[in-house]
Design goal:
About 5% of the residues lie in helices and about 60% in strands. With about 675 residues, it is mostly beta strands. Among the domains are: about 110 residues, Immunoglobulin-like (Sandwich), CATH 2.60.40; about 160 residues, no CATH class. The strands form three sheets. The protein has a 26-stranded antiparallel beta barrel. A hairpin with a 3-residue loop joins strand 31 and strand 32. The protein is globular, with a radius of gyration of 33 Å. It starts with 5 loop residues before the first helix and ends with a strand.
């Protein structure tokens, strides 16, 4: 929930807050022609702080001239590289915001007289001004690309069944670029994938584009605008829309005071990678389009009432909607309305949302069955304390509740992961006291929201909790404990039948699930260790014998022996029992690892051992696996300087049976590998 991130919102730096207050109250004075060769001076208050001063900028006729300013005795002085032409001119003093926006602090207009006998030189001066403006437009540009390439050759194998060739080529690259000029900003990001074995590729192509995004932003005097192409999120998170990234196009525009913002979009409903369907909007059978508008009608502050309206329409795959096992093409549309209001500087947050959806899960059967359905959500969270201390430890408490009612057949192409058919209310609390963190949540949920005749209504009631406590660093006789911590979590969930229709012949529902986990660990010098124990029970009271019981123990330890040697290990042991089959099985898994730098900057070695044992009623063959790699760095990579390394990698497995990939108990394979890493970057 958005309200759960209240603590992050309250962590905005105080210096930024003070800078904004200063900007709203500053009294800057313009002085024309303070001395020979200088066009103007801007006199600033004596009490201006240095952080605010470094974020001020000056514009002349819409051109940023901050780089040409000089600072003398508390004043900005400007001497233009070329004389200004005669006529009216404008000057703006602005405060640059961290998000790229600018806030006007003061503005002035003045008329520049034409000097005697200078009429013939005015066009030349205007041309010089245009050239200077073009040179000043581009403030900065930067780019970076990190490329990795690995060529491997299988030198030898034993009892390995594989259809892949002996040699393989794989690699990837990630790139980014940024361009800033005056009030414009351009950003680009993307990656590519290389895999010679097409059976192992993501898109079926040896070399292909992965994901990419292009973004452009413009900051005007009253409006800011933006365009996104490629993978990006619309910033909508609710019943109708999920915040996941999709490939497509969106255009945004909004007022600088953030009281009104609108975006138009056309996106693919599903996830996609590769150069095929590059824009994400070329396939009409997999495209949704729409718009959203956010309005703060009464105030621009964070506590102001915010109203968000949204609409979409389109077609797309039903994969992920849970409608059927076979994939089909669905068609749908929907609209929604979201209201948010805060009080007391965000200590109380109220929210509500309504969504209306029309959806046909399969348009290929030409039945044109459009299900109309509704979804509601209401919630609030409250933070009663502000700057409270107890026993010299800070205390914070957040309590909240959330109610959702989603129709049985509600579905949205813009939010395929939303679970439908539920009427749910939950109450939660987060408590923080020094190093103690706790969370408790109580939930009740029923299904069959549409009250379908002949269908039963089930009820799920659950209680979940978790907490952690970190001790102070121990000393004296307990110094070996380092900085210990404890963790505790649990769940109790009861599922029973709330309403059973007359004549219903289906199965009954009456069960309860319980689980509890206790864990802890410590950090001491170069050591780290941790452990946890989980016990889970599923008690089936319907008489069908589906009850289960499981216990799981996990231990882990690692040590940084030196700068050149590190060790790690972990052990898991589990017991699983079933009521109906009266079976009990045991599993043991052991991992041991070592990483060593044999020659600093040149030779390194790593090895990992895994043992997997299964016994009891579900006995499986024991499995032992060893992986190792010896690497030799020929050239160490640095910026704009490729790195080259050679390596030998091998694996050996012992398995007491023959599988589809092996033809014997003992098998191994050895590879020779060439790695190239090329981090490239530049800019100005």
């Amino acid at each position: 929930m958005k309200s759960r991130y209240l603590g992050a919102l309250l962590s905005i730096p105080l210096w930024l807050h003070s800078a904004l207050l200063w900007a709203n109250d500053v009294q800057a004075e313009l002085i024309l022609a303070p001395r020979a060769g200088q066009l103007f001076a801007i006199s600033l208050p004596d009490d201006i702080d240095m952080l605010t001063l470094t974020r001020l900028a000056v514009e002349v006729n819409g051109i940023d001239v901050t780089a040409f300013l000089s600072w003398e005795e508390g004043d900005f002085l400007y001497a233009p590289p070329e004389p200004l032409g005669s006529g009216p001119h404008s000057i703006r003093l602005v405060l640059l915001q961290p998000d790229g926006r600018s806030e006007e602090v003061a503005s002035w207009r003045f008329d520049q007289p034409q000097p005697d006998g200078a009429a013939g030189t005015a066009p030349a001066m205007a041309d010089a001004q245009q050239i200077a403006a073009a040179e000043q437009w581009l403030r900065s540009a930067s780019w970076s690309v990190n490329n990795t390439l690995e060529a491997s050759y299988r030198l030898h194998e034993h009892n390995i069944k594989s259809d892949t060739g002996r040699q393989q080529l794989s690699g990837a690259g990630v790139g980014a670029a940024e361009l800033q000029g005056n009030n414009w900003q351009f950003n680009a990001q993307g990656n590519y994938l290389l895999q010679s074995e097409r059976s192992n590729t993501l898109t079926g192509e040896t070399l292909d584009l992965g994901e990419y995004s292009l973004a452009s932003r413009h900051q005007g005097e009253h409006l800011h605008t933006g365009v996104n192409l490629g993978h990006h999120s619309l910033g909508l998170d609710g019943l109708l829309f999920s915040p996941q990234q999709r490939r497509g196009l969106s255009v945004q525009a909004g007022s600088n005071n953030n009281r009104l913002a609108t975006q138009f979009f056309a996106l693919r409903p599903d996830s996609i990678a590769g150069a095929r369907h590059l824009t994400g909007i070329d396939d009409t059978r997999n495209r949704m389009h729409g718009l959203s508008t956010r309005l703060q009608p009464f105030s621009a502050g964070e506590d102001g009432l915010a109203i968000t309206a949204m609409y979409y329409s389109g077609e797309g795959s039903t994969a992920g909607l849970g409608i059927s096992e076979e994939q089909s093409t669905g068609k749908g549309s929907g609209w929604g309305l979201m209201l948010e209001k805060s009080f007391w500087q965000g200590r109380l947050n109220l929210s509500g949302e309504y969504a209306r959806s029309r959806y046909d899960p399969d348009i290929s059967d030409h039945t044109d069955v459009m299900h109309s359905s509704d979804a509601w959500r209401m919630g609030f969270d409250f933070r009663p304390f502000s700057d409270l201390d107890w026993l010299d430890q800070p205390v914070d408490l957040v309590v909240g509740t959330d109610y959702q009612r989603i129709d049985t057949f509600f579905a949205s192409l813009a939010n395929p992961g939303l679970a439908a058919d539920r009427d749910m209310v939950s109450v939660y609390s987060d408590f923080y006291w020094g190093r103690l963190l706790t969370n408790v949540q109580v939930t009740q949920e029923t299904n069959n929201v549409a009250d379908l005749e002949g269908m039963p209504t089930d009820r799920l009631q659950s209680l979940a909790w978790n907490g952690s406590y970190t001790f102070d660093q121990q000393s004296g006789s307990r110094a070996w404990l380092g900085t210990p911590y404890l963790q505790l979590s649990g769940l109790i969930a009861n599922l029973d039948r709330h309403k059973t229709p007359q004549g219903y012949l289906g199965f009954n529902n009456d069960n309860i699930a319980r689980s509890i986990t206790l864990g802890g660990g410590a950090n001491y010098a170069q050591w780290h260790w941790s452990g946890s124990y989980t016990q889970a029970e599923f008690d089936d009271r319907s008489g069908m014998g589906l009850g289960t019981d499981s216990r799981f123990l996990s231990l882990a330890a690692s040590k940084q022996v030196s700068e050149r040697l590190s060790l790690n290990s972990d052990l898991q042991y589990g017991v699983f029992s079933t009521e109906f089959e009266e079976q009990r099985s045991y599993s043991t898994n052991l991992n041991l690892g070592i990483n060593s730098i044999l020659v600093p900057g040149k030779l390194d070695f790593s090895m990992n051992y895994n043992m997997n044992l299964a016994s009891g009623d579900n006995d499986l063959p024991d499995r032992h696996l060893v992986n190792a790699e010896l690497g030799w760095t020929l050239l160490k990579a640095s910026q704009n300087k490729p790195g080259v390394a050679l390596a030998f990698r091998g694996s050996m497995e012992n398995n007491h049976e023959t599988t589809a990939y092996t033809s014997g108990r003992h098998r191994y394979q050895v590879f020779a590998i060439l790695r190239i890493n090329a981090p490239l970057a530049g800019g100005f």
